[in-house]
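Our preliminary data section would be incomplete without showing what the modeling component actually yields. Below, a chain of 92 amino acids is followed by its predicted structure, encoded as tokens that our downstream tools consume directly.
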Amino acid sequence: MTEAQFLADAKRDGYAEILEREMQAGSNATEHEHAFDAHILVTAGEFTITIGGNANTYRAGEAFTVPAGTAHAEAAGAEQLRYTVARRYAQS
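Predicted structure:
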């Protein structure tokens, strides 16, 4: 998936906040939750997301979604990870 397609899809699907993020090679974030839906496009490196004990690894050009309130852990692969995250907050 190209970044342009990712951004067009995110906008169409109501994701209003777009951020560029990085994680150092080999780093991780322990299990946590977000108050927003996160739609993520990996732009460099590998991103492993673990939900309910199931780990999935995504590489450059691949996208995935983590719904709000989903407990998950994150890990970067052997190279620096770069990704674009689109956030969608629940309507009040």
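The helical segments are 3-12. The domain at 3-89 is CATH 2.60.120.10 (Jelly Rolls). Preliminary results of this kind motivate Aim 1 of the renewal.
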